[in-house]
Structures are given as structure tokens and as C-alpha cells.
Amino acid sequence: xxxxxxxxxxxxxxxxxxxxxxxxxxxxxxxxxxxxxxxxxxxxxxxxxxxxxxxxxxxxxxxxxxxxxxxxxxxxxxxxxxxxxxxxxxxxxxxxxxxxxxxxxxxxxxxxxxxxxxxxxxxxxxxxxxxxxxxxxxxxxxxxxxxxxxxxxxxxxxxxxxxxxxxxxxxxxxxxxxxxxxxxxxxxxxxxxxxxxxxxxxxxxxxxxxxxxxxxxxxxxxxxxxxxxxxxxxxxxxxxxxxxxxxxxxxxxxxxxxxxxxxxxxxxxxxxxxxxxxxxxxxxxxxxxxxxxxxxxxxxxxxxxxxxxxxxxxxxxxxxxxxxxxxxxxxxxxxxxxxxxxxxxxxxxxxxxxxxxxxxxxxxxxxxxxxxxxxxxxxxxxxxxxxxxxxxxxxxxxxxxxxxxxxxxxxxxxxxxxxxxxxxxxxxxxxxxxxxxxxxxxxxxxxxxxxxxxxxxxxxxxxxxxxxxxxxxxxxxxxxxxxxxxxxxxxxxxxxxxxxxxxxxxxxxxxxxxxxxxxxxxxxxxxxxxxxxxxxxxxxxxxxxxxxxxxxxxxxxxxxxxxxxxxxxxxxxxxxxxxxxxxxxxxxxxxxxxxxxxxxxxxxxxxxxxxxxxxxxxxxxxxxxxxxxxxxxxxxxxxxxxxxxxxxxxxxxxxxxxxxxxxxxxxxxxxxxxxxxxxxxxxxxxxxxxxxxxxxxxxxxxxxxxxxxxxxxxxxxxxxxxxxxxxxxxxxxxxxxxxxxxxxxxxxxxxxxxxxxxxx
Length: 760
Hints:
Layout: H1 2-27, H2 31-37, E1 44-46, E2 52-55, E3 63-64, H3 72-82, H4 94-107, H5 117-131, H6 145-161, H7 164-172, E4 176-178, E5 181-182, H8 184-192, H9 201-209, H10 223-238, H11 241-246, H12 248-251, H13 255-263, H14 275-282, E6 291-293, H15 298-314, E7 322-329, E8 335-339, H16 367-375, E9 384-387, E10 409-412, H17 413-418, H18 422-432, H19 434-443, H20 453-456, H21 469-476, E11 484-485, E12 499-500, H22 504-514, H23 521-524, E13 537-542, E14 548-554, E15 558-565, H24 579-595, E16 609-615, E17 629-635, E18 646-649, E19 652-658, H25 662-666, E20 673-675, E21 682-685, E22 691-693, E23 702-708, E24 714-719, E25 722-727, E26 731-735, E27 739-747, E28 750-759
Parallel strand pairs: 1-6, 3-5, 19-20, 22-28
Antiparallel strand pairs: 1-2, 4-5, 7-8, 7-15, 9-10, 11-12, 13-14, 14-15, 16-17, 18-19, 21-23, 23-26, 24-25, 24-27, 27-28
Helix pairs in contact: 1-6, 2-5, 3-9, 5-6, 5-7, 9-10, 10-13, 15-24, 16-18, 16-22
């Protein structure tokens, strides 16, 4: 009976010891393993058609790929080559250990080793902890007895934590092959320019012997050494009946196969496409990401890269040293091309700065968003906006001017946007408010203006707040997308959620304005930069100090944005304007359109709006006196009246302009007349509350004054203590008197008083 109890107790003790040992090996902290598992992998990037773009390097150019799956035949070859009893031991092969000790002792030298695959993996893990992400090298400590004991202990820990298959995968994915390649997947590509799943049987055996002595078995420089070792391994493999039955092709290899495999060995030329975009994505990926399929099109990317680089070279003397471009699919929001600079490797031109993400003033390319907002806040396409000298502000003066320093008088809403006039845009923003417009821009994805919009003030209408090209392209695509904003993405097939920013009709009206070649004649003439054989919308912009130039173009299906200039903030010279990026955007749309010529590219018509004949000057319904008549969209809710600006006088048509056009009308010889009494008496300039600086020089000792309206032709003026009269037009000058100034004007029964300040 005591024998049975003894056996039970012994069994319990053995089980307890085994369990405690297993728990210790399984759960005792293994910091080296934790660091090993968190190490980064190289990521394979492909375009939308499966073209390899990059395999990102790690420290010192090392590439460590993580294959989706290691073919079983490769696993079996590596197990046969390194550890035949791998599936039958617990991490330490006692039989191999005894054999190695006996053989080495009997010969007096190292004949064989007892290192298992698990022990080799433990050594790699320890080396990784010492060398971070550098290629693992054989540890000097592992050659000592204490080092071997630690290695065996860690091998037992690995066996307690992972399955055999997982251990084998970690081992094959971590083997150092030399030549900046770690893991069989990177080695297959590095030595044979092949995916690991596409290796031939002879290449598999060559690959299996390289880790033993990477330089000696290097198939580039020592193909004979590599072939001899691989052939010897294959002969032994062919003697194993079980493996031959499982992999008959691996046994049917002769010398010619090996010679052909080695003749095909060549150092793989790693592609380096989309450097800026992939650098951005790589910084956001998890460390164990294996591969990414991007939405981009490599052929389109190369076309745009050549276009940017070619134009930078052509206009280098104009201080255009860089450029960037972005193209996107409107339907999916997928990015098709991302050119960050003209030359990524040009350090002198700061080529590694990403122009798609860099902040630059967009100039007039922002105006469509403002005009769209105006359409949704009571303005109509037939409205006329006065392009005349205006001053804005409360305490600080803002006096906008057009790009050509001219004033164009009455301008229809359509032409004001298409010809990119500045004063109408500032007027609209003044009416809509900077805060409301800022909120609209934030809804459109312009996160970069959150802090700068307030400082820009009314200059926000002219694009004085820096934004990113990425934001511009995403926002501009709202118009061909019927007013819906869809965030751009580089992930192929990703479905982002869109949101409505403008009504369908507003977006379609903006598309009509920006695709109208006649409406842009005032600013751009009949230039070729916007000519396409298909409907397309365009908008350009120039920074207020000419540091950069921008062009946006879109069809129903695609949107393209191009920026050019320099990253140093220098002024672009020779008045190149936005014609250069505009031509690139146009040509890129041509390329995209040719690829989809069977798709209908017509912009849809706005619903509930009808094309109707209007007076081209007043925007009202034409009368018999109107000589210039155009078609424009008119809504049924508009209160339409016959044109009051044109009358038949002595058998001829005469234009009678409202009073607010006084300064424009009197600045040059014009046909027609002014209806001075069409407006109440109003001081246009100076504005009440403005602060002026005193100064010396021509024009600096006087304040210009303009008053409009009133029924009488004589104006009674009181400036501080001085009183005088002036006849129409009420345009005159006052002396700058330091301190607070009071100006009072009287005309008949009407009177207005303002105060302004002259500071020393």
C-alpha cells in the first residue's frame, strides 16, 4: 500500500514541478521578447493596379519584410537544413546535445552543434535587444558555456509560449541573410528579385544555406560556393522518403537547375515611388503592418512628376524652384497622385518638404467657396456687384485692389468669380462676416485656417490665410460632387462618409460659372490654359506677395491641384502668373479624360433654375434700351423688374449708373451718366472710426473724401472748424489734422456726420 501512496505522491510532485516550471517559463517576464515582437517591419506598398511602389527601409537600410504566409515547402526545407527534430523536442534537443558533446570531445574540435531552431531564435532575440533594429549578428556570449545555458533557458521559455509553427515563422522571418536583408521574404527579393511564394525549388535550397555564412554563400559573388552547399543539402533532402513524397518537385533538381537559379541572382533594385506620401503613411502605420495597397496610380504619378520637374527647370530663372500636385477621384475620394516636390533628393531646393502638406497662401483659388456661400445667403447669379474703390474695417483700414489695379464698375456675379475680381469678393465677405465664412471653411476640411483666419480678416476673401494643397483639392471637389464633401483617402477601397456643405443647385451654379470661358475673359482673355475638349472647371490663385501660384481643375470625375513656387518664401519673378500650374492641371485632366473617354462628363444643370435673358450690365430683365443681353440662371423666387439703367434718349440708348459708381465713373471718360439721387446721402470715404497716420510727401498730407447721393448738386461741408461748399461730383481732399476729426456733410434735408482720427 505504501508503494502505491509513494507512486501517487511522486506523480503529484512531478506534475506540480512540471506545472510550476511551465508556468514560470510561460509567464515570467521576458523583456527581450517583448522588444523583439514590437520591432518594426518593412512595409510593401502597391498602387491600385498592384505595381510595387516601395519596400520601406529600416535603420541603416535594413529591410525586414513580413510575408502574409510562408509556403510550407520553405518551412520544411529550413527545418530539414537546421533542425530535423524540431517538431519532436521542447526547444532543447537532448539527443543532439549529447551527440555534439561526444563528437567534439572525441575529435578535439567543433564538429557539430546542438543548436535548435528555437535556440537560434532565442539568440536572435537576445541580439536584437542589444542591437535594436540593426541586423542580428552571432553573439559572442552564445559561444561560452554560460551563454549556451541562457540560450537553452530562453528556448524553453519560447516553447512554453508559442506553437511550433509560430516559432518557425518568427525564426524564418528573422534570420539574418546579410546584405541588409533580414527574413526569408526580404532575402528572396534581395537575391532573386522574387516574392517568397514564387521561388523555384533550386532557389529555395540556395536561400536556405545563405544564413550559414552570408558572404561565403553570397550568390552574387560566390555562386559556386552557394551552389555546392545548396546541392549537398538537396541531395540529403532527396534521401528523405517522407519529404520526397510530400514535395516531389524538391527532389527533382539537377545541376542545370542550380546554375540557372544562380544565373538569375541579381541585387534587387528597390523602387522609391511616392516618397512624400509613403513617408507620411509609414509614420502612422503600426509597426507590424505587412503591406498596403494604395489608391494611387503609378503611371499618373510619373506623368505629374515629369510635368512638375520639367516646368520647374523651364522657369527656374523666375525663382520657381519647386512644385507639387495632387489628383483625386471625385466619386470615391481616392487620391490618384501625390507629388510633394520637383525632386525629393534636391536638398538645395528643400525637396524633402512636402508641398501637398506645406502651408501656402492660396490666393484667389479660395473664392469659389465664398461665392457659393453667398448664393446660399440671398445672392443670385444675376446680381451686380460694384467693382469700385471701397474701404472696409472698423479701426484699421482695408483697401482692396484688383490684380490689375483697375476698377471695372458694375460686374455680374458670374463674371466677378470667373474673372477673379478682388473687390467684389471682399464685399461679399464683409456682408457674410469672417466668422461665418471661417466656419464654412472648417466644414470644408480647412483645418489649417482655424487660427490664422481671424488674423487674415477680410483678406481671407483673397486667400491670405495659408492652407494645404491637400485641403484645397478636397474642398474644390465639392462642386463636381453636387455640394457634398468627401474626405480624401489614400486607402484603396476605403469608404469615407460624406457630408453636405452646399446645396445641389449652389454647387452646380458654381460649376457653371467656373466652366464659362466667356465669363473669365476679363481676367484671363482667351488663353489656352483653360481650353479642354470636355467640360471642366478651373480656378487659379496667386499669393499676395507672389511667393506661390496655385491652379485647381476638375471634371465631374476628377479633381487636380497644382502648386508652384519655392519653399524659401521668395517672390516669383517675371510675372509668370498662374498660367504654369493651370496648364499642368489642364493637361492632367486631359490624361485622365482619355483614360475614361466613354464616361459622360457633362456637368448637370441646376434644378429649379431657368436660363433667362438678362441685361449684361444691370442684371435686370432687358428693356428695349438694353444693347448687351446674355443668358443667366434665374430662380422663380426672384423679384424681377425691367432694367432701369438703360433709357432711350434722343433715339439712342443711354446707360444711367447708380450713385455708388461715382468714383469709377468720374475716374475716366465713359459713356452714359450718373443718377446721383439714386442713393441717400452717404460718406463713402473716410469711414467713421478709422485711424490714419500723418506723414509727409505727395498725397500724405491730405485725406481723400468721397460722398455720394443727395438730391442737390451742391454739398455743404464742415471739417472741424472749417466750412465750405463743393459741387458734384462730391470728391475732394481734407488736410490731415492730428487728433480726432469731425466731418459733417449736408445736402438739402439730408445730413451725415462721422469722426476719424489722425495719429502722429
